[in-house]
Amino acid sequence: MNMDPVEPCELCRLPGGELLWQxxxxxxxxxxxxxxxxxxxxCRVIWRAHVGEMSDLSGAxxxxxxxxxxxxxxALRACxxxxxxxxxxxxxxxxxxxxxxxxxxxxxxxFPAPIWAKPKREASPTRAExxxxxxxxxxxxxxxxxxxSS
Length: 150
Ligand SMILES: [Zn+2]
Fold this sequence. Notes:
The chain is of the alpha+beta class. The chain has helices spanning about 10-15, 35, 60-80, 130-150, and strands at about 20, 25-30, 45, 85-90, 100-105.
């Protein structure tokens, strides 16, 4: 792997969204701004160190990161009741390991296409955002369940 950028990458320099949960290895942020507008509850789970691929992590670290991805999914399902959750790890633009966890609704701007595709309709209907404290508690609770079941 050649992952030593001269300039620290965006996810090394910045949180990447509103910080909801973190430990020494990874964090969960809520994506805001233009990117998050049509997607209430759109979260990113970001590995702290600058690595490119899941296979760069040790088995224990992979399990830890995936437990947090699944906990975030569980929390978003409970808080937003979406029709579907999309999980995606792309990193083609920012090659710093992160997962997108995106609640999807059948009437959202891109459904059934991925959110990065050409839009299918003008805009998503307005949906209420869930309070950060509530979402943080839901992630913490779901993570305890993930770790208890492993
Ligand atoms: Zn980075």
